[in-house]
Amino acid sequence: MVSEFHNIWAWLSIYLSGFTGLLLITFFLMKKPKNNLSDYLIKLSIASVIVQIFAGLYLYGTGVNPGSFHLFYGIVILFTLVFIYIYRNDLNQQPELFWGLAMLFIMGLGIRAVLTFGRGL
């Protein structure tokens, strides 16, 4: 049950992060300021990634072996979210660019995590 949720939610999280990243990069290129829609999408994308991380941690705790590479990319996503939180005030001079690139980076890490499930060293 949780494994199926983790698999389906992964793609939802990837698509949502990618859409948010592309939208924010578009806002940056068009010189439009961040608005309520983009703030909502950023928060929704991060919340979906956090739900995904907790589902993965739950599965790992129950004995499911995701493979070392899948686990590595999940940890990198978690650390990326931590660093985004730490440096959020320093990088708010161009928030559309910062958040857009961050969301696209998280999307790429999510794709790598899905594609490396079950692979290990």
Distance between the termini: 27 Å
Helix tally equals 4
Estimate the mean pLDDT confidence.
Answer: 87
Q: What's the oligomerization state?
A: single chain
Extended strand count: 0
Global shape: elongated
Class derived from helix and strand content: mainly alpha
Question: What fraction of residues sit in β-strands?
Answer: under 5%
Order of helices and strands: HHHH
Report on this model:
- Helix content is 78%, strand content 0%.
- By secondary structure, it is mostly helical.
- It starts with a helix and ends in a 6-residue tail after the last helix.
- Helix 1 runs antiparallel to helix 2 and helix 1 packs antiparallel against helix 4.
- The longest helix is centred in the first third of the chain and has 28 residues.
- The radius of gyration is 15 Å and the shape is elongated.
- It contains four helices and no strands.
- The mean pLDDT is 87.
